[in-house]
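Hi again,

Forgot to attach this to my earlier email, sorry! This is the prediction with flavin mononucleotide bound. I've pasted everything inline since the attachment limit keeps bouncing my files.
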Amino acid sequence: MTDKPERIDDRYATPEKYTTLRGIYHDARRRLSDIDWNYLSCGTGDEVTLRENTAVFDRIRFEVPLFAGIDNPDTRTNVLGFDLSFPAFIAPFGGGEAVFHPEGHLAIGRAASAAGIQQMVPVAASHSLEDIAKASPVASVFQMTFVGEEAAALDMIERAKAAGYSHICATYSPIRQWRERMMEDRFSLRSENGPSNFGPGRSDPAALKELLAFTKPRWTWSQAADVIKRSPLPCIVKGISSVRDAQAALDAGAVGLYVSNYGGRTIDRTPTALETLPAIRKAVGKQVPIILDSGIRRGSDIAASIALGANAVALGRLIAYGMAADGEDGVRRTLELLRQEFWTTLGHLGCSSVDDLNEAVLSNGATSINLQI
Ligand SMILES: Cc1cc2nc3c(=O)[nH]c(=O)nc-3n(C[C@H](O)[C@H](O)[C@H](O)COP(=O)(O)O)c2cc1C
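Structure tokens for the complex follow:
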């Protein structure tokens, strides 16, 4: 990208409804019922990993150079062949995102497109993968759990390809998660919000039950490798949290790695994604694209993730807050504010572009997080 970046508006006095991400968060909390809020916010077990996911970013300390001569840093980048206005994707969060707004991923996709980033769409979305692809010009990565018959998984990949998706994000989910807030609430998705990609009709309750019942056989790495190699679309693998699995994913033919603990929603007392990242980057080298999520709430979190080895981040709950607060407009504003925060962080760190972010922007305080190097 050689052309000059557009100047990002940095006025405090804006006519926008929301001036900060904090304002969007509070509005989302106010609008959602306690039960829906718990569904969105909960983790598993004692929620240690959930808390650590954001706390680890709070422990990051930056070193700010003086007279670095930066006035309009370039937030743009390219990851997996996608030009992004800043290094972010929409995370594939589903299983009833229409709880937060009836337009779900349709609205998210339109907002992501306006913001210049790409959208990952979950198999468990409230709208069908085809409807989302029609509504969203940036619905490019289709997330699916590798489960059941291999042939059925390959059929689903063909279906995603036919709808226009360019990549698959493979996930693994062995057994029901221990989410106590949802258990105490006796949470159950209203059928109109359930997944649309299964069964004869939309939001088929039987299909939802099957999806959540974990009755289908779970896969080994060799089955996953077989499907990745036969897939007509390139695959990235999500849920990487160790060098061993990073290597296994690349050996299986993955074109990128997605370092994530699913926002602390799978099993408690696992390391944060940020802590596992440096060792994974060191092991796989500079060329492998790495996306990271779990705990991204601010532009400075994006900068820290890239400084420690990611190429881009993915946004989960942050997008749900925007959607719950104000639908498509809330997501659009969330992305705009996040990009502005990232922009001001880059500038203060003396970085004229995303490529300038590396460990040198972290002061010694950064070592107070438990980096697995
Ligand atoms: C309500 C909700 C539903 C989710 N559903 C899925 C899903 O269907 N597939 C998936 O791969 N990840 C799912 N995730 C995980 C997100 O894609 C992402 O990894 C996580 O939200 C990142 O953490 P953060 O929200 O703290 O940023 C879900 C997350 C939330 C909050």
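Residues 40, 53, 91-95, 122, 124, 143, 171, 238, 260, 262-263, 265, 293-296, 316-317 surround flavin mononucleotide (CB under 6 Å). Residues 21-368 form a domain with the TIM Barrel fold (CATH 3.20.20.70).

That should be everything now.

G.
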